[in-house]
Amino acid sequence: MDRGVTVDSSRIERWQLRPGDHIYAWFYKRIIPYAHHGIYESNGKVINFINDAESASSGFSALSSSSSSSSSSSSFPFCSKCRDNMRAGGVVKCCLDCFLEGNNLHLFAYSVPEWFYNLTIIGRVQDTCSMVPEEHPDKVLYVANDLLDHGDFGTYDLVHNNCFHFAFYCKTGRGYVYRLQPEALVDPSTSPPRACTIM
């Protein structure tokens, strides 16, 4: 099992990060909590997938919203460099601070044993892991950077093609279909990651 992910928590510290890690942060600024996912590159940089940036100065809490309304004043503003990088949306690179927006850093674990994958915590399923094996970090970073350079991960879709799908694809080389339709997984012999609210 990957470092930092336990039955109680998937939270890790910055010093524990390794290039190619699938990381995420929970956001609680909307009615429904959601997680924003990305691939940690190195030197405090994260490659991630966002919707078209109607208000790039407002942070992921606005970018991940399914509505087109502008963000509230409580949103975390991106630094000027990240704001410029994210103006067009799609696959982008930002600093870790802008990715987290002041929230805790979490690690998504791969290749976990079935017993861990199937655990429940106070009535909820594990949302921190997958039994699917991960690719070597060099390959993960190659795929993430290739998608960043060529912008060919498709159009952002809140349900079918979002930041989680991007990070999962970079880590495994496999597509993922939301678990309400597990039979629609690209590789039906694998178990899908446990559901979390993803945007």
From TrEMBL:
<dbReference type="Pfam" id="PF04970">
    <property type="entry name" value="LRAT"/>
</dbReference>
<dbReference type="InterPro" id="IPR007053">
    <property type="entry name" value="LRAT_dom"/>
</dbReference>
<feature type="domain" description="LRAT">
    <location>
        <begin position="26"/>
        <end position="179"/>
    </location>
</feature>
<protein>
    <recommendedName>
        <fullName>LRAT domain-containing protein</fullName>
    </recommendedName>
</protein>
